[in-house]
């Protein structure tokens, strides 16, 4: 048998270095589960390693892709998984391939109520949002989100309100996102309205920032000392440089959080994600 995979053996622009290759499919090793991929989305986090940004922890050649949905083809005797069962094939090889062999420990079964396309995006953004909300509780607090129209921020806002946040304000670049945020209960603020942005930030308890750069620096300059800004992305391509503010600054990166999760905590996080995803 053969396995089709999107591979890179050098770093560079994804369009230039990613290639589709047909590779021999090795026999399934004992204790491993073989999964046939159904869907694998494309996220910025999938492409960044291809450019060489994480070359210190990437071994070439490598298969691209971090998340997706597949179905079990073969599982070892006594496994909790069965052939044909839908799973998220996580924390193993790259997901941009037809077949992937993994340790069963981190495979995540997908409930029947969650459709394929939703499940295929059920890892990076949902788990990032869920773990941040667990680490920084939001009940009774006023929140500000940057890049509020993004997938991760949208989940953060909706789930925060469901978890008891008093208010959620979302900073956006385009007015076309205003109605969608309002429908979700999030107060939209255009990033060009600096006066309103600063006024709301002065009364916020938590800021979840995915932008960095000038926007994050502006917020830090007006946040109260009791507030916390959580930096979980740098969509601007520029880091935080503001040092005059008195608010606490924390950083979150999913890759760094994963090693701290026990198997039980990993499974519990997805149990909650599956309950919340279909209604967001």
Tell me what you see in this structure.
- This is Alcohol dehydrogenase.
- Keywords: NADP, Oxidoreductase, Transit peptide.
- One of its GO terms (molecular function) is oxidoreductase activity.
- Residues 31-111 form the Alcohol dehydrogenase-like N-terminal domain.
- Pfam families: ADH_N.
- The chain is α/β, with parallel strands linked by helices.
- The chain folds into 2 domains: 2-121, Medium-chain alcohol dehydrogenases, catalytic domain (Quinone Oxidoreductase, Chain A, domain 1); 125-255, NAD(P)-binding Rossmann-like Domain (Rossmann fold), CATH 3.40.50.720.
- 28% of the residues lie in helices and 23% in strands.
- It has 10 helices and 14 strands.
- It has helices at 14-17, 44-47, 116-120, 124-135, 151-162, 178-183, 194-201, 213-222, 254-257, 263-276; strands at residues 2-8, 19-24, 32-39, 62-63, 69-74, 86-88, 99-103, 108-109, 142-145, 167-172, 187-190, 206-209, 228-231, 248-251.
- The strands form 3 sheets. Strands 11-10-9-12-13-14 form a 6-stranded parallel sheet, sandwiched between helices. The chain has a 5-stranded antiparallel sheet with strand order 7-3-5-6-8. The chain has a 3-stranded antiparallel sheet with strand order 2-1-4.
- Strand 12 (206-209), helix 8 (213-222) and strand 13 form a beta-alpha-beta unit.
- Helix 4 crosses helix 5 (151-162) and helix 4 crosses helix 10.
- The longest helix is centred in the C-terminal third of the chain and has 14 residues, at 263-276.
- The radius of gyration is 20 Å and the shape is globular.
- The model has no long low-confidence stretch (mean pLDDT 95).
């Amino acid at each position: 048998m053969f396995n089709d995979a999107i591979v890179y053996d050098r770093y560079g622009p994804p369009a230039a270095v990613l290639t589709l290759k047909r590779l021999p499919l090795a026999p399934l090793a004992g204790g491993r589960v073989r999964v046939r991929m159904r869907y694998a989305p494309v996220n910025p986090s999938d492409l960044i390693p291809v450019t060489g940004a994480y070359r210190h922890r990437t071994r070439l050649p490598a298969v691209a892709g971090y998340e997706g949905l597949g179905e079990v083809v073969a599982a070892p005797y006594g496994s909790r998984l069965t052939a044909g069962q839908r799973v998220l094939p996580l924390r193993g090889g790259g997901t941009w391939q037809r077949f992937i062999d993994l340790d069963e420990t981190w495979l995540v079964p997908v409930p029947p109520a969650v459709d394929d396309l939703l499940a295929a995006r059920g890892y990076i953004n949902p788990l990032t949002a869920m773990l941040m909300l667990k680490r920084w509780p939001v009940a009774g607090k006023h929140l500000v989100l940057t890049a509020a129209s993004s997938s991760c921020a949208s989940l953060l806002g909706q789930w925060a309100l469901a978890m008891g946040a008093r208010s959620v304000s979302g900073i956006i670049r385009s007015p076309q996102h205003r109605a969608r945020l309002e429908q979700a209960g999030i107060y939209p603020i255009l990033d060009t309205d600096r006066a309103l942005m600063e006024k709301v930030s002065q009364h916020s308890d938590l800021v979840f920032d995915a932008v960095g750069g000038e926007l994050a620096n502006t917020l830090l300059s007006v946040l109260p000392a009791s507030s916390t800004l959580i930096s979980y992305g740098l969509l601007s391509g520029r880091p935080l440089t503001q040092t005059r503010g008195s608010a606490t600054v924390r950083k979150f990166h999913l890759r760094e959080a994963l090693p701290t999760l026990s198997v039980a905590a990993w499974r519990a996080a997805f149990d909650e994600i599956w309950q919340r995803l279909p209604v967001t």
